[in-house]
Amino acid sequence: MSLLFKNLRIHQIFGANTDVGKTVLTSALVRASAVAGHSVYYLKPRTVPTDDAFVNAVASHIRSCATKPDMFSHMYVETAGGVHSPTLSGTTQLDAYRPLFLPTVLIGDSRLGGISSTIASYEAMMLRGYIVDAVLLFRDEYYRNWEYLSPYFAERGVPVVSVDPPPERQSDPKADASLTEHYYQDIVPDNGEGAIFDVIKHLDSCHTRRLEELDSMPRRTLDSIWWPFVQHGHVKREADVNIIDSAWGDFFSVYNGKRSPSPSDNSILEPQFDGSASWWTQAIGHAHPSLALAAARAAGRYGHVMFPEASHLPALKLAERLIQDGPGRGWASRAFFSDDGSTGMEVAIKMALRAFATREAGQLGGARRKDLGILGLKGSYHGDTIGAMDACEEGVYTCEWHDAKGYWFDPPTVSIRKGKTVVALPPAIAAETEDGQSDIETVSLSWTYNIDERLKSPLASVYRNYIERTLQKLKDGNGPTIAALILEPLVMGAGGMIFVDPLFQRVLIDVVRGPSAATRSSSEWSGLPIIFDEVFIGLYRLGLQTSSTLLGTTPDISVNAKILTGGLVPLAVTLASDSIYRAFLSDDKVDALLHGHSYTAYPVGCEVAHETLDILDKLTTSESWRVAREKWKVPEPEKVSETSVWSFWDPEFVHVVSRMDHVAEVMAFGTVLSIKIKDESAGYQSHSARALLESIKTAVQSEALSPAPGGSPFGIHYRTLGNVAYFMLSLNTPPSVVRAVEERVWAVLEKRH
Amino acid sequence: MSLLFKNLRIHQIFGANTDVGKTVLTSALVRASAVAGHSVYYLKPRTVPTDDAFVNAVASHIRSCATKPDMFSHMYVETAGGVHSPTLSGTTQLDAYRPLFLPTVLIGDSRLGGISSTIASYEAMMLRGYIVDAVLLFRDEYYRNWEYLSPYFAERGVPVVSVDPPPERQSDPKADASLTEHYYQDIVPDNGEGAIFDVIKHLDSCHTRRLEELDSMPRRTLDSIWWPFVQHGHVKREADVNIIDSAWGDFFSVYNGKRSPSPSDNSILEPQFDGSASWWTQAIGHAHPSLALAAARAAGRYGHVMFPEASHLPALKLAERLIQDGPGRGWASRAFFSDDGSTGMEVAIKMALRAFATREAGQLGGARRKDLGILGLKGSYHGDTIGAMDACEEGVYTCEWHDAKGYWFDPPTVSIRKGKTVVALPPAIAAETEDGQSDIETVSLSWTYNIDERLKSPLASVYRNYIERTLQKLKDGNGPTIAALILEPLVMGAGGMIFVDPLFQRVLIDVVRGPSAATRSSSEWSGLPIIFDEVFIGLYRLGLQTSSTLLGTTPDISVNAKILTGGLVPLAVTLASDSIYRAFLSDDKVDALLHGHSYTAYPVGCEVAHETLDILDKLTTSESWRVAREKWKVPEPEKVSETSVWSFWDPEFVHVVSRMDHVAEVMAFGTVLSIKIKDESAGYQSHSARALLESIKTAVQSEALSPAPGGSPFGIHYRTLGNVAYFMLSLNTPPSVVRAVEERVWAVLEKRH
């Protein structure tokens, strides 16, 4: 992972092409550092067949040079060939070195065509986020490339320094050696003056500035940033601010501030596992080059172009894909784009209310139209804009204007307790079962998610009767007219990783749709419009593209966001069936869905989403997915479909944790692991989970547990919700990393025990 | 502008470097096209000192070859040097050719280092959105670059074809010519078979596919897209869908469908001026390479990283810049990021409500806290999420759940009528003036915006008395407790480009703040928290960074979006003063501002915003801005500040239009031109403006009026709001384009007259 040391200033040397003088100029830099009185290291790594091994080897070598905190040293890491020259593993230099995130000196090309290759190389570096501190090239008096490149790069904040080219090679080795030595003495004179020394000083100052900047960031952040969802009264110390210098794959590279692990280690960055998948958005690892290129591609072709009554390829192709091969398959006919899950849900709510009000138009006058309510589950969360909040019951995520509009069932839940799968019924439902038990042990997790089987069970009838009676009471009461059913299928994330019994959700849907449910067309809503809020779970967060396959039914409206753009930029899509769409069709502008955001369907977001879906298609049919699924496979007699519950987390690990005394329950589903700690004061204000697992965040000093790229020990950044600690993987987290995270979690829980 | 013809398949040939065989392989392609029986054009443009002249010359030449709709021809445009080799104007090839947006054959580099330069060149092309249809390179048996490049590009959907290299040059010219001829016959045999012919066929199929795709897009769009703010019942014909193939600067390149301007012109793309600045977002032209690179840079360094309790450079530096040198200067202490203007306003509203409720805590119990209202102006619009809508009165942009919470003044407005500046008073205010007149002619536009002067005028006292009395009535009545004042300063955009008398807004603010207004600290709210919704006008849409300088006062909370990211990706920022921030500070998590979106402060958005602000800094102090300002300068005696009203639109043009019979009024301010057409049925449903100006959209066939890059005539894409037609420029629209737009608008209005 990203390397940065207080007393070791490292620069990697990339060449704009082969034969541009990389070795000569690197030697000059090495000499200059030495003349300037620094101890200096030179490294020319050889590539090896795998990228991980390469990064680990280079990092380990660099680390061994960085153990002298008492003196300031320089290091130059010379890469091979041009920026995109292939390594033995098949990736190119730029991608192979990226995990180390070393600042760069780019050796420009001084020959004919060298302006082009220098700029193109620079842009390829930018696409990978590299810091380029200087451009260095030979002063070829014929082509004079430096004359063009100097102002070009000055405009981009990068100094260009040109140096006399070396003498022509002599056939006599002795003469050649002498001439070469003269050359070096000319460009790196002993008096320590000249262009090369200016470069050295500049690189030193870049290093110092970066350190100072990192050091100032916690204070400056505390002084100017207003964080989402954070009580700033709780985060007052600089050490509490997580300074993310860069990110790669599953890891942040974070500033360790004054928390240097040991006196002999002057490293100031450390890897940190992004254990919440950056608020559930991360799908294929941070800084994926394909996504960066997709963003650039659409930015370069369109910028943003306005969308109403218009069309462009990225939006159109994304819409078609989501409808035909995505979560909308089989029921959706239209895609409406917006910016985030919350706006996507506001759109969904507006769609549902209108569809309901239009069909019931005879009865619903102006006043009644305002008084429409939502049917949902307790613990729901659909985003923070006020309309999305109003679709949830009063709770902690609310504000002065919150007005809970609707009715919310207390749902049964699924969890693993002491190695057993348990369906926990709320008292009102438990009271209606034969034995009045609130906790029902089921055969297995996979059986619990086998809806077809369970629909025949007595519990299904209990659910049905309970729901029907409750809805009848609602109709008879003075509450609002219920106009839509909104569900977060399978799990209510923000509400506390509540895994709802899928049978309950399915029965609820069936009851709401009424007797015609079985025969209805999937493009026609019946009973109430049904919205699936799949912002969190959609697109394989739980290993499933959509919950529809598992629940055995489709919604009338659904919302996707988060993973949709692979964890890079915001975008949401609200899919709707034809019957919903038709409710807005008329000859009157006022009947239209008068909702839109300036950047609706912006090409960058749509293109990045498209690229993400391409990558997901490959990933979800990959060998590592097959292996992970295999582990959770149920024994033969218990046949379940391919879409069954499974997880990247090891079943054995999950069961072991679930048996710990201070663990109330556990769930693992797809990329999600949630651990509920026993705690008297549950709820949003609980700190017990946080207190228990705080230590996981800090780096674990054990080389044996070090699968972060670069071989360093790593901390885990994760989030808690009340007394639930949850961990999330991206869809391509390497199994070795998953195992390492499991080991740490287990070790901390065990210690506490 | 972008060139695409039905019967002329054009490819530009870019080289991954100089001397890679561009000319040889282009010749081979030309030969192959000829052997395959097509008429074929070869073009090797010379660069000229300005990019516009270059593009115009190339486009004009290409156009002259495209006048034979009866036969299918090929054209190859060979560029010079590598992709980034400089042109005479100083830009590089990639940027110089970009306006033409020709599909590309990239000639790969078959030499040592050629893998790197080929990939880097490809990525540089992607950053500018280019379509790369094929990679062609020599089959060098020693380096065998094609072996690496073929699968590499196959993964990216681009075929790689390798061709035997040419023979070595002979000293004898005759022998050389003969050998060369043999070489060409080998790689382009007369039998029409072999790799080069496969390339030709592939290029033909790419061309055909692109045409078919464009042709299918209208239908597919009508079948799958649900547009924002559009009554789909009104847009049923394929011809009504604006298919945007690409964009550059101020222009879309749109598909002209079956609307070919003349039988001899088989062009199928035409330039269209983006006259609404793509819903008011566009600031520095579409597809600006610096913004694409900024997006790529942040994507490559971070992807997205979660923000609560964390920090990264793009977000931190943007927050500091907005607070210290941006719209927050002098009053704001905190930046809260969200995704769009609407979410930014929801955040602002939550901030204001809490700040008010906290200070008035003694009196405000739970129920009262819900019953807080907003003070605003009729015609306000703050976005489409339901909370933002609830801050506006009932109107057309509403939905079932809309619940207008507050009171909205009918404001006086400013406009230019018959060449005179007029302040129009609503009846209730007019009744309070000495002469009861509703229309007050003022000295000039600049005087009208000179608040300091006008605060001493009798009208200021009329405003003050009226506002004070109204607020007192509100307090005495049964309405909600007013908890915040929300203003769109200077102009209410979505409400119909209503330019509010700035004196009224200033007096309203002063009255709301009460007697302590003059002495209050700018970081302490008094009376009510005051929100400036500067989503539309902020960051120079009106030529001013913020309205604060003109209104002579600062808000307690402000929201910026749209231009913030230069018209590329969504991002909003809510700035708040210290007193607002402190209302959420406590030791209890529940008191925090519990609002956030998954991609809050995503690095790509923040980095793009930063780059935009850099560019704006240069632009707003540029010569063209000085010249535009100069035109609107008032005569000496009438001294106004540097921040006075001015516009990119020519004052003479504005005055002439304002004097037309069927024009009710006009306003020009910064980049905005709004023309209100006389119409009985005003309001959102009005079509009169649209009907009148419909013809502006279509291409105007007059070469004399052709400043679009590429010299083609262009249409204007603009929007209407009721009976108002408005036109918007970006901040760097060339004066020649502004003049051309003015000429067209004038011509259409004149014709109608």
TrEMBL record, chains A, B:
Signal peptide: none
Pfam family membership, one: Aminotran_3
Subcellular location: Mitochondrion
Residue spans crossing the bilayer: none
Main localization (coarse): mitochondrion
GO cellular component: mitochondrion
GO molecular function per UniProt: adenosylmethionine-8-amino-7-oxononanoate transaminase activity; dethiobiotin synthase activity; pyridoxal phosphate binding
Record-linked InterPro entries: Aminotrans_3, Aminotrans_3_PPA_site, P-loop_NTPase, PyrdxlP-dep_Trfase, PyrdxlP-dep_Trfase_major
Source organism superkingdom: Eukaryota
GO-annotated biological processes: biotin biosynthetic process
Assigned keywords, A-Z: Aminotransferase, Transferase
PANTHER family for the chain: ADENOSYLMETHIONINE-8-AMINO-7-OXONONANOATE AMINOTRANSFERASE
Protein name as annotated: Onanonoxo-7-onima-8-eninoihtemlysoneda
Organism: Trametes cubensis
